[in-house]
Amino acid sequence: MDESRFDELAGQLIEAGRFFFSRGWVPATSGNFSARLDDGRIVLTVSGRHKGRLERDDLMLADLDGRSLSPGRRPSAETGLHTLLYRRNPQLGAVLHTHSARATVLSMRRPQGVWLRDYEVLKAFPGIETHTSQVHLPVFANDQDIGRLAAEVERHLDREPASPGYLIAGHGLYTWGETVSDALRHVEALEFLFECELLQTRFDSHE
Question: What CA–CA distance (Å, rounded) separates 85 from 55?
């Protein structure tokens, strides 16, 4: 393994975790992050680690079937949701899962999905060049059977391959990108958009 590349990606995930924690998007030990090495293996957070206080030893290696390649370290139970995305898209370089209050509340208020329209910030996502575009984020019921949930996510992506992410009801956000920086940008853009949607709901209720 190229230790320098592992260290580079681990450092990027550590930095992402600290940023997300500073914004309240990964409370307690919630969330999980991963990035793909050039040989196809993935660097990911060890299960149960606080994402705002990550260190190098809190990152591990796994293969694309989610099996640990780091003796004594256990990946998140949700690793299958990461590996599904990597197997589908060879260009994908990172997957980030966060647990913000906004994403959690919105996922429960809109179980049929979240449609984002007419926002300038939509240009943060690949292939979108105008604010008049529409982005759909599905909401999946929370399920402790990760294989079953992954199959449901895959069916959605077969129908809507350009989706920038999805929500799990009462749980949080999954999004991804070609690099850790791209995926981080998507988290930041979606969090802004979630806040806009909830503010609009609040204002509408007072009209």
Answer: 25
Tokens of 153: 């996510």
pTM: 0.94
The torsion region of residue 127 among left (phi > 0), alpha (psi -120 to 50) and beta comes to left
Q: What is the DSSP letter of 40?
A: S
Split the chain (207 residues) into runs of 10 and give each run's mean pLDDT. Answer: 86 98 95 95 94 96 93 90 96 97 95 94 91 92 95 96 95 97 97 94 65
| Residue 72 φ/ψ region, left for φ over 0, alpha for ψ in the -120 to 50 degree band, beta for the rest | left
- With CA atoms as reference, report the closest residue to 146 among 59, 66, 79: 79
- The rounded distance, in Å, linking the Cα atoms of 183 and 154 is 19
